[in-house]
């Protein structure tokens, strides 16, 4: 029982005991977290990964501001019922530009990780205005003021710059034109619209997201909801894992 | 100063401390606790051998069982697909007539389609397909793009005004906003279109009827019955997408309409889409 004797002696030396407790408690964290930065399979390679446009980012900020993540998860788990209902399970790479990530674990509403393109813009507009207009049994609150509130685009450049500091590959031109691009994406017939396509790709959703004449918070939020799960096609095109 | 004594009752020594006459026994750790520590450590050792555990730089120990959630999921899905492979294959390949003629297969189709409809179609088209403003009713017999299983499965596959390359396409022009008709004419046409639900009058000499023939008949037909498969509605029945009240019709004429139905090709399998088509085709009878 010499081990117990050593512990008995350690208990009498408080500083060493504290150091020992910290060392023992760190093992779990070190073993579980540290290897994620070195193990190859942690984040999948996604050559076609795109970044959020300023309008989508503004929508994402509204999503966070309104606390949507409290009831909607964005994380399809590796379970058959989830995959059959929502689509391919979420990959780590799909949220690599999410700061903070919005995976969530509570589902008062459904998971929305693959909501993009599932319903029309008109449905989203009607649903956000009053969910019960389209889904009578819904308990989601109405967000009718979004359509009445103009979108504040003045600080979007700063948001892009902050995300670049965290590793999101925004270019100088993207940061410089963030405010213009945000408005242009929702007004496809404007002169500035070509710049959005040039900087973010031809496949960017460029359209009026709601029937409002000006760009509102509703447009931004719908533009965000319509690209959920569409940031990369990796999850849809990857070969199904071999069954051994 | 500490002085270790032996307690005469229990036989254990004291810790040697003396707090105002109170002394503490230095009794050994209970056997149950020692056993518990040994058992949990053994369990951990077994876990290390069986399950993915230790990081090794760029990889990690996979464990003897080679447990992997993604492999498990693939096996789960493969097993489920094998169990229904027979009838799902028939669902994807047989003629709709052949499926309808097979009561067992048809029952499976309707049973499987119900939750698919609830998850994918109901948010817009409503419970039991009752529809809503902007979202066509499916439980009536007024079809815009055709009400047979073949037509419905095509609509589900390609969508309407969707991103699919073969998408169905339809647009109601903005006669007011784009100044094809003035406000007086829009008002006149609103009343006329509303009156069509009571019956179309052939050779009507009124100004509104003339305007209709000049501007609307190209799509909606000279008898205002629409042309199925073009997206132009039959205006003589009671079915509307955006509402048949004067305000809605006025809005439609003024600002035009362009609804969207997404393509479901990438989300649903061929068999899923065909089961949904059979389900939707059978909807009109159900509510009556």
Any key phrases for this structure?
heterodimer; A: about 240 residues; mainly alpha; Cytochrome Bc1 Complex, Chain D, domain 2; elongated; disordered C terminus; B: about 290 residues; two-stranded antiparallel ribbon; 13 helices; about 45% helix
Q: Name the overall outline of chain B.
A: elongated
By CATH, the architecture of the largest domain in chain A is named Orthogonal Bundle
Can you give the helix content of chain B as a percent range?
40-55%
Discrete helix count of chain A: 11
Question: What is the number of beta strands of chain B?
Answer: 2
Structure overview:
The complex is a heterodimer of chains A (244) and B (288). Chain A is mainly alpha-helical and 244 residues long. Helix content of chain A is 41%, strand content 0%. In chain A, helix 3 crosses helix 8 (178-185), helix 3 (54-65) packs across helix 10 and helix 8 (178-185) packs across helix 9. Among the domains of chain B are: 71-168 and 261-287, Cytochrome c-like domain (Cytochrome Bc1 Complex, Chain D, domain 2), CATH 1.10.760; 183-255, Orthogonal Bundle (Cytochrome Bc1 Complex, Chain D, domain 2). In chain B, 47% of the residues lie in helices and 1% in strands. A two-stranded antiparallel sheet of chain B has the order 1-2. In chain B, helix 7 (149-158) packs across helix 12 (270-281). The chains are: A mainly alpha (244), B mainly alpha (288). Chain A binds chain B through residues 4, 31, 34-35, 38-41, 78-80, 83-85, 87, 89, 117-123, 126-127, 133-136, 236, 240-244, and chain B through 29, 54-55, 57-60, 66, 68-78, 80, 119-120, 122-124, 126-127, 132-135, 163, 259-262, 266-267.
SSE layout:
The complex is a heterodimer of chains A (244) and B (288).
Chain A: H1 2-10, H2 14-33, H3 54-65, H4 80-86, H5 121-129, H6 156-165, H7 172-176, H8 178-185, H9 193-200, H10 217-225, H11 234-237
Helix pairs in contact in A: 3-8, 3-10, 8-9
Chain B: H1 31-50, E1 55-56, E2 59-60, H2 69-83, H3 85-93, H4 96-101, H5 103-120, H6 122-125, H7 149-158, H8 183-196, H9 207-215, H10 217-220, H11 246-255, H12 270-281, H13 283-287
Antiparallel strand pairs in B: 1-2
């Amino acid at each position: 029982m010499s081990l117990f004797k050593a512990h008995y002696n350690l208990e009498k030396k408080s500083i060493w005991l504290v150091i020992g407790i910290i060392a023992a408690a760190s093992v779990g964290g070190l073993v579980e977290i540290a290897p994620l930065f070195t193990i190859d399979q942690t984040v999948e390679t996604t050559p076609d990964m795109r970044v959020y446009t300023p309008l989508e980012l503004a929508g994402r900020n509204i999503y966070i501001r309104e606390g949507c993540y409290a009831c909607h998860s964005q994380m399809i788990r590796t379970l058959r019922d989830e995959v059959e209902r929502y689509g391919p399970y979420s990959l780590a790479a799909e949220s690599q530009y999410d700061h903070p990530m919005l995976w969530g674990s509570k589902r008062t509403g459904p998971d929305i990780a693959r909501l993009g393109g599932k319903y029309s813009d008109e449905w989203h507009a009607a649903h956000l205005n009053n969910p019960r207009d389209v889904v009578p049994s819904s308990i989601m609150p109405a967000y009718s003021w979004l359509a009445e509130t103009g979108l504040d685009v003045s600080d979007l450049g700063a948001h892009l710059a902050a995300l670049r500091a965290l590793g999101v590959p925004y270019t100088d031109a993207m940061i410089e034109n963030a405010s213009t691009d945000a408005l242009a994406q929702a007004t496809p017939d404007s002169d500035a619209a070509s710049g959005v396509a040039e900087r973010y790709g031809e496949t960017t959703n460029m359209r009026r997201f709601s029937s409002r004449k000006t760009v509102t918070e509703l447009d931004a939020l719908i533009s965000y909801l319509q690209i959920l799960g569409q940031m990369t096609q990796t999850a849809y095109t990857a070969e199904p894992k071999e069954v051994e | 100063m500490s002085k270790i004594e032996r307690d005469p009752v229990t036989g254990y020594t004291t810790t040697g401390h003396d707090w105002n006459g109170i002394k503490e026994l230095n009794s050994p750790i209970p056997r149950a606790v020692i056993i518990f520590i040994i058992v949990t450590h053994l369990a951990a050792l077994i876990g290390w051998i069986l399950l993915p555990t230790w990081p090794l730089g760029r990889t990690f120990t996979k464990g003897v069982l080679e447990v992997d959630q993604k492999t498990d999921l693939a096996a789960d899905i493969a097993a489920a697909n094998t169990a229904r492979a027979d009838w799902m294959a028939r669902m994807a390949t047989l003629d709709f007539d052949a499926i309808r003629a097979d009561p067992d297969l048809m029952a499976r189709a309707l049973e499987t389609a119900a939750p698919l409809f609830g998850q994918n179609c109901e948010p817009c088209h409503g419970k039991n397909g009752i529809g809503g403003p902007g979202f066509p009713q499916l439980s009536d017999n007024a079809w815009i793009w055709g009400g047979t299983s073949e037509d419905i499965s095509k609509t589900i596959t390609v969508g309407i005004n969707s991103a699919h390359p073969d998408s169905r396409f339809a647009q109601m022009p903005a006669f007011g906003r784009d100044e094809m008709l003035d406000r007086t004419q829009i008002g006149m046409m609103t009343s006329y279109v509303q009156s069509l639900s009571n019956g179309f009058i052939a050779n009507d000499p009124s100004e509104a009827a003339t305007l209709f023939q000049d501007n609307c008949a190209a799509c909606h037909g000279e008898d205002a019955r629409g042309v199925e498969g073009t997206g132009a509605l039959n205006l003589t029945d009671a079915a509307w997408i955006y509402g048949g009240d004067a305000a809605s019709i006025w809005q439609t004429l003024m600002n035009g309409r362009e609804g969207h139905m997404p393509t479901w090709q990438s989300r649903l399998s061929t068999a899923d889409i065909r089961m949904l088509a059979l389900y939707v085709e059978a909807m009109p009878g159900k509510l009556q």
